[in-house]
Design a protein that fits this description.
Layout (H helix, E strand, L loop, with lengths): L9 H9 L3 H20 L5 H20 L9 H25 L8 H24 L2 H11 L4 H8 L4 H20 L2 H8 L4
Helix pairs in contact: 1-3, 2-3, 2-4, 3-4, 3-8, 6-8, 7-8
Length: 195
């Protein structure tokens, strides 16, 4: 497959993404990532931020394509760039709010205890949803949580290259995140969080 993304039908690109087609994922990375990297690094971000944003954007596209709620009216390059741009703007706003918060809060013993209970319940929900993942996803996420270098994850999983491994890792994270957010116990727990 030597043709560029622009020459491929958007339907074929989306189907290839949903099916984790390595060739298409590499092509997307080669053709779409440089402009996102430039946008992020020239707007208060670094290479890691750019990669995170780009992977988030790909994960969103995959999710919408799976739900059949995505119809591309522009090229995938343009669409991914605009999704990445919006995600980066949101992150910049969030960062500016975080820096406006005080460095530490004086917590009472009671709120410390509440926080501990909340964290324990959150961990149980995480563990339950993690255990429901397929073995491949569990293995990738375990290595990621243990801070394995991407090179080692690529080798251990038998993937063709690190780019594919990064996208796969991101898909695993998004899958787990979605499962947790849709877990009734998580929804119940978040109702207890004060605004």
């Amino acid at each position: 497959m030597t043709e560029t993304l622009d020459k491929m039908s958007s339907q074929l690109v989306l189907e290839s993404l949903v099916n984790s087609n390595r060739v298409v994922i590499n092509k997307i990375y080669q053709e779409c990532y440089p402009s996102v990297r430039y946008m992020v690094t020239s707007n208060s971000g670094n290479i890691d931020d750019a990669q995170d944003i780009f992977h988030d954007a790909i994960a969103l596209v995959i999710e919408k394509a799976r739900e059949k709620s995505l119809e591309l009216t522009s090229s995938l390059k343009t669409y991914l760039y605009s999704v990445s741009f919006n995600l980066w703007q949101k992150q910049l706003k969030r960062k500016s709010k975080e820096t406006a918060l005080p460095d530490h809060l004086d917590l009472s013993e009671e709120s410390d205890h509440e926080q501990k209970v909340f964290n324990e319940q959150l961990y149980e929900i995480f563990q339950h949803n993690f255990d429901q993942l397929n073995p491949e996803y569990q293995k990738i996420l375990k290595m990621y949580l243990l801070k394995y270098p991407m090179k080692k994850i690529t080798r251990e999983m038998g993937y063709a290259n690190e780019k594919y491994a990064k996208v796969k890792k991101y898909m695993c994270k998004e899958h787990l995140k979605n499962n947790i957010h849709n877990d009734p116990k998580f929804k119940e727990l978040t109702l207890l969080i004060p605004n």
